[in-house]
Amino acid sequence: MPSLAHYMAQYDHEHSSGWNKLLHGVGIPMIFLGIILLIFMKWILGVSLFVGGWVFLLLGHKIEGNHPAFFQGPIYLLVGPIWVAKEAWEFLTGMHHTSHRTSTSKGTSQSNSEVRSQGTATKQL
Q1: Helices in 40-111 by DSSP H: which ranges?
Q2: Cβ–Cβ under 8 Å, residues 88 and 25
Q3: What is the pTM of this model?
Q4: In angstroms, what CA-CA distances link 27 with 71, 85, 101, 121?
Q5: Contacts of 72 (CB under 8 A, 6+ apart)
Q6: Residue 41 near residue 28 (C-beta atoms within 8 A)
């Protein structure tokens, strides 16, 4: 079975548009809040949030030009909220993905992980 990291990377790959990320960041919490309200029998508000959240998600995928990830498997119904939490955390803390490129003194570019591994190799020498 693939790891969570595999599913997260796949989900991230299919959600690269800023608008899609924004719509997912709003839509997924709306869906969860709608489910909670339905459990507590707040029918009209619960259904409204649930349906509205799905409209946001589908609109985001229309903008991005792909299908929702859960068509690939129901596991993505769990991966989506984890991905949104990760994106929100990175936004709030100012953290960036480790795949950003860094310019070197030789005029080439390397990923941050390549730069870190070279620093580690230099310290060991």
Answers
A1: 43-64, 76-93
A2: yes
A3: 0.71
A4: 17, 12, 31, 45
A5: 10
A6: no
